[in-house]
Amino acid sequence: MHPRIRTIEDYHAAYKQAAEAPDAFWAEVAEPFTWRRKWTSVRGGAFSPEGQSTWYDGARLNITENCLDRHLATRGNKLALIFEPNDSKTRHVRYTYRELHQHVCQFANVLLNNGVEKGDRVVIYMPMIPQLAMAVLACARIGAVHSVVFAGFSSTAIADRVNDAGAEFVLTADGLNRGPKQIPVKSVVDDALQSCPGVRRVIVVEHLGWPVHMQEGRDVWYHNEAENASTTCTAEEMAAEDPLFILYTSGSTGKPKGVVHTQAGYMVWADYTFRNVFQVEENDVYWCTADIGWVTGHTYGLYGPLLAGSTTLLFEGVPTFPDAGRFWQVIDKHYVTIFYTAPTAIRSLMAAPLDHVLSYSLSSLRVLGSVGEPINAEAWHWYHQHVGKGRCPVVDTWWQTETGGIMISALAGVTPSKPAHAGLPLPGVQPVLLNQDGTEIEGNNEEGYLAIKGSWPGIIRTTWGDHERARQTYFTPYPGYYFTGDGARRDADGLYRIIGRVDDVINVSGHRFGTAEIENAINQNQFVIESAVVGYPHDVKGQGIYAYVILEGALPASHAEAQVIEASIIETVVAEIGKIAKPDKIQLVSGLPKTRSGKIMRRILRKVAEGETSSLGDTTTLLDPAIVDEILAGKK
Ligand code: WT7
Question: Any idea where the AMP-binding enzyme C-terminal domain is (predicted)?
C-alpha cells in the first residue's frame, strides 16, 4: 500500500495494517526516502522499561537530502519557500528548491567555517525570515542539533535553554518586526549571553539594518561570513537515532524540558502526517502560521512541507497588522490552498468586523487546519463558513511537542470532521482512555486520561540531559503507555474530543506553560513571598493566567499602590519568561488555601478564577478556612 490514504476504505485498511503488521507498514512508508543505508530494524525498544523507542535503527541518512536534494531533479524550479514580510508594502521573496538548496548549503558552510561540528548544539533565536528556515536546515545538513527558541522569550529564558543544551553557538538577527513594533533581538541575546560563558560564536543575520553591538572575537555578521562560502555542501551522514533537534517545552514542574527528536523517525512521521492529514497535491501552496520557534513550525512550517516537495509560506507578521484582514489578504495574494492556524488567531479575528474577511475571495483555499488547543464549536463554524466558504474540510489536529507530529485528526475530506472534535487517530496511533488507576476504558461515550499504546516514529526519545525526567513524565505514570497529560472523550462514533490538560499545565493562546514555571517567575519579584497560578477560561486565548500572590508585609493600602506592585510583578514575569506568559489577572491575597500538610488546594483557586464560586467543595480541611472568603471577596 502506498502511504497516501485517499479514501475511508484506505484509512481502515491502513489502520488495520499499521496495528497488525507495524513493521511491514512502516517499512513501506519509509521506502520512498533517500537512505544512505537502510535500517536493520524498523521498530525497537518500544516497550522497554527505559521508555525509549528506536525507529529505523541502523539506517543512515540526512534529512536535508530528503527535504532538498531529492527534489532537485523533478522540482528544482518549483517554489519551495515564499516569504511574506511583516509589512504588506514590502516585497515578498520566493525561493525555488534549487535556490533554497544553495542557500542552505551556503549557511551550512558558514557554520562549518565557524567551527560548528556534528553533534554540537546550536541555539537559534531569530525572526520568522527565510534565514531562520535556512539556519535550521543548515544545522541538520551538518549534523548539528538545532534548538530554536521562539523570539518572544526573554533573555533569561534564552540563557536557561542555551545552558541546558550546552550550546556553544547562537544564531540570531539584528532585530525583528512584529506588527507595528520592531524588537532589537540581538540585544536580548547579548543580555542572555552574559550568563552563558560556554557560547563561543554568535552569527548575526542582518534584517532590519539596525546598529548592534558586536562582541569582538565572539560575534560575526552572517553576510560577511557568507561572502566566500560555497553554495554546495555535502550532507553529513547521520545515524537514524542521532538527535536532530531539541525543543524546550513546559511541563508540570518548574523548569522547561528539552524534548529530543531524532533523524529518521521524525522525518518519516513529519512527511506521512503532513501528506495524509492535509491531503496534499503537487500544486498546493501551503501556509502554516505557526512560528518556527514552536513544534508546529518545525514539523508543518518547515520539515513536513519540504519533505513532501510542497511550497510553504513563511510570514513574519501578525494576524492583525495592518488590520484584521491580513491573513486573508496573504491567502489571496499567494493563492494559498491549505491554511493551518490556531484557534486563538481565529477567535481574535472573529472579534473584528466581518468585512475584514468578506472582502477577500479566498477561492484558492481547499483545506483548513487548526492546532494548539481545543477549537470551540463557534470558532470552528466561523472558520468553516467565512474562511472556507463552507466548502473546505476543517482538520482539528491534536498532537504535542513530544509526539513530533499529528496523532489524532481528520484526514481532510477522507475521515469525519466534527466541530470541537479532533476525530479519529492516524493509522499507526493507538489512543486509549485510562481510568485513574490505569485501566483501559472500553467502549464509546466515555471519558478518561488520554494515553497512547505502543510507539510511533515521531515519539519523543528523551529529554535533553535528563532521561529520567522523560521516563517519569511520560512512561511511568501508566506503564506500557505514553501518557499525554490530556483528558479526552470518545464519542458514540469513536471520535476523540480533547478536553484539556489534566496536569498543572495551562494552554494560553496555544502556548504551554507550567503553573509552577510562572509561579517561580513571579516569586522572583522583590515584593512577593509566594504565589499560586491557575488557568481560567478566556474568550480569545483559550485559557488566561490567573495569579494569586502573597506579598511581603501587609496588603497594599491603596488601589494605586496595588497597581504599582502588579505592574512590577508583570515586569518580572516578562523578564523571566517573556510577554507571552504575562498574567492576565493578579489577585493580591494575605494567604492561600492550604491543607494542614501545607499543600495548596488548587481546586479551590481554579473554581474561584473560573467564577464557579457556588461549588467550591469541602473547605473544612483547610488550615485557615477564612482565607477562602477573603479570596472570594477580592476575586478579579
Ligand atoms: C498540548 C500540546 C501540537 C502543536 C501545538 C501545541 C493541546 C494541541 C490540540 C487540539 C485540543 C490541543 C493539548 C496538548 N492541544 N492541539 N487540536 N485540540 N488540544 O503543542 O505546546 O506541545 O502543546 O496542546 O493540551 O497536550 P504543545
Answer: 517-599
- Regarding whether 175 and 133 lie in a shared domain, the answer is yes
Cβ(399) – ligand 1 distance below 6 Å: yes
Q: Is the pLDDT of residue 4 over 90?
A: no
- For the entire predicted model, the pTM comes to 0.96
Report yes or no on 274 lying in a domain.
yes
Q: Find the CATH number of the domain harbouring 597.
A: 3.30.300.30
Residue nearest to atom 18 of ligand 1 (CA): 374
Tell me, using a 6 A CB cutoff, whether residue 507 lines ligand 1: yes
Distance 405 CA to ligand 1 centre (A): 11
| Centroid of ligand 1 to alpha carbon of 169 (angstroms) | 30
Check pocket membership of 373 for ligand 1, CB cut-off 6 A. yes
Ligand 1 contact, 485 CB (< 6 A): yes
Show the 3-state SS of 358-405. HCCCCCCCCEEEEECCCCCHHHHHHHHHHHCCCCCCEEEEECCHHHCC
In three state form, how does the secondary structure of 119-152 look? Answer: CCEEEEECCCCHHHHHHHHHHHHHCCEEEECCCC
CA of 138 to the centre of ligand 1 (A): 28
With a 6 Å cutoff on the Cβ, whether 249 touches ligand 1 is yes
Rg (CA), the chain: 24
**CATH number assigned to the domain comprising residue 189:** 3.40.50.12780
ipTM above 0.85, yes or no: yes
> pLDDT digit string (tens) for 354-403?
999 999 999 999 999 999 999 999 999 999 999 999 999 999 999 999 99
